[in-house]
Amino acid sequence: MLFQIHHQLHYDYDRPVFLEPHTLRLTPRQDASQRLHHHQLTISAAASGQCRVQEPEGSDGLVLWFHDQRDHLTIEVISRVETLRENPFDWIISEAGARRLPAVYPPALAASLAPAMNGCIPGEVSRWAEALAREAGPSSSDFLMALADTIHHGFHHIGRLEGAPLPPEQTLTERCGACRDTAVLFMAACRSQGLAARFVSGYSCHHPPEVSEHELHAWAEVFVPGGGWRGYDPSLGLAVADGHVVLAAAADPALAAPLSGSFRGSGARSQLRYAIQLKVMQGNDGASAEPGQEA
């Protein structure tokens, strides 16, 4: 599918402030699943300097720094992205130890994946995941779809514009959360079963019922030997195919945030306004959308 994305972010400050360095992760990823055809980023007022960087887990970042005080920051991104993976199940598990739960990766691979496997998993999440694994059977691939389906059908999904993801045990207890909350719960459940999982930020053309307009979206990726990093969207109950566009992925959700930064100013307050337009220019059947038609 071919997507045209127009993403605007506007920060207003009620008095002039000093902006600390900001990291933007608003460049769609380029890999086996998607290709970036066009990318244009405009910043107003212009930063004092900038540097394009490759993040620790491969995402593209743009670091901005500022020398002067300012009372606003506007970021506008226009991207055209082609998603390539029509079939989310076009893989086999090439390592026997990862076919059954709990999964075991070869030592060298496990060392490379350690950031996406480490961390303290709350006991209630581990017990819940273990029970689901017993019900789904020993196959790790069956568990992944059962987990996504269980969260999609068994939880109340909400829109929550601000704040970090909730702890996975809270989302599990309350059976309620935004897409980033259910993504973190999905990750914790996978890690408890030996599967490396990380957090993904991006866009989706699939509208969950709780969302009335296009917003940033979050889901998870799991590393499958023989398939690489594969996306699962628990808020939608999907194995990710060509309806999602990845911006950034990281074992720590904070390192996959589309924008990270802070400001200094005594008593100053900020307000964020944003708008996202996501249009499907061409479907996976090769048909082009009508001008102005949105996903």
Describe the structure in your own words.
The protein is α+β, with helices and mostly antiparallel strands. Helix content is 19%, strand content 37%. The chain contains 5 helices and 16 strands. The protein has helices spanning 107-112, 123-136, 140-154, 168-174, 179-192, and strands spanning 2-19, 22-24, 34-44, 49-54, 60-65, 70-83, 156-157, 176-177, 197-204, 217-224, 228-233, 238-239, 244-250, 259-260, 263-264, 270-282. Strands 1, 3, 6, 15 and 16 form a 5-stranded antiparallel beta sheet that branches. A 5-stranded antiparallel beta sheet has the order 12-11-10-9-13, with helices on one face. Strand 10 (217-224) and strand 11 form a beta hairpin. Helix 2 (123-136) crosses helix 3 (140-154) and helix 4 packs across helix 5 (179-192).
Distinct helical segment count: 5
End-to-end separation in angstroms reads: 11 Å
Arithmetic mean of pLDDT: 93
- Structural class, from secondary structure content? alpha+beta
Strand tally: 16
The share of residues in helices is 10-25%
Rg over CA atoms: 20 Å
Largest sheet at a glance? 5 strands, antiparallel
Please state the overall shape, judged from the principal axes of the Cα atoms. globular
